[in-house]
Specification:
Layout (H helix, E strand, L loop, with lengths): L1 H31 L15 E13 L2 E15 L2 E14 L8 E14 L2 E23 L2 E2 L3 E21 L2 E11 L12 E5 L9 H7 L3 E10 L1
Antiparallel strand pairs: 1-2, 1-10, 2-3, 3-4, 4-5, 5-6, 5-7, 5-9, 7-8, 8-10
């Protein structure tokens, strides 16, 4: 076994030295005959990219919104910059704990290059929102559910603008600005069950400021992503 690993080590070192010498010889050859570079095979640029992102700055009404993009899939070719799918988690910070919320969103955005590295297009997606310091019941036709943490969901739509900056071989820094309108409801579910909201002390929620703060609104996000 020891002899096998010794031979494997020698073979690996020999291969590295050979490839290094071969690369230097190729470089010297092309330097001497530069007109032959056009016949050299080059690996085609990839069009599909994976990515990770972070949004340190976001606003929802008067609340600050932070989010992390956990997965992105992009198709980038010529004038098209297509965000096929991305999934992110986020959290808002508000003066009242009752207005704080947790978010999970998925989105897609086909964009077209409009100038230089800048591309723009629509963004659509689905958002799941949870308010950890609020409770709710569902009621319909005399039926009522037990108290539970209030959560809701809905689709959203808006505009996305991105700047793609090459930072190395097959790496892109993507800076995105997103503006979209939330579509979730705090009044009823998709199958027409009604929400009855309660604060953390299990009192029915009657504070109009809190109701306004948890209602759907326009979201602005500035997001930085690394694509590879």
């Amino acid at each position: 076994m020891k002899r096998f690993f010794t031979q494997l080590f020698i073979l690996t070192i020999t291969s590295i030295i050979f490839m290094s010498n071969n690369a230097r010889a190729q470089s010297a050859f092309l330097t001497q005959y530069p007109h032959l570079k056009k016949f050299l095979y080059l690996e085609p640029s990839p069009h599909l990219f994976l990515g990770l992102g972070l949004s340190p700055l976001g606003l929802v009404q008067s609340k600050v919104y932070f989010s992390a993009n956990l997965f992105q899939l992009h198709f980038i070719e010529n004038n098209w910059d297509f965000e096929i799918f991305s999934a992110s988690i986020g959290k808002t910070s508000a003066q009242s704990s009752s207005a704080q919320s947790d978010h999970f969103t998925i989105r897609s955005s086909p964009k077209y290059k409009i100038y230089g590295v800048v591309s723009a297009g629509p963004v659509i997606g689905l958002e799941f929102v949870r308010f950890p310091n609020l409770q709710s019941r569902l009621y319909k036709g005399g039926w009522t559910t037990p108290l539970e943490t209030f959560s809701t969901s809905g689709s959203f739509y808006g505009l996305a603008i991105s700047e793609n900056i090459d930072i190395g071989d097959h790496y892109i820094l993507k800076i995105s600005q997103l503006l979209y309108k939330q579509g979730y409801s705090i009044k009823k579910t998709h199958n027409n069950w009604q929400y009855l909201l309660f604060d953390s002390n299990s009192y029915e929620l009657e504070d109009e400021e809190i109701v306004a703060a948890i209602s759907p609104d326009t979201v602005f996000m500035l997001e930085f992503s690394i694509l590879f």
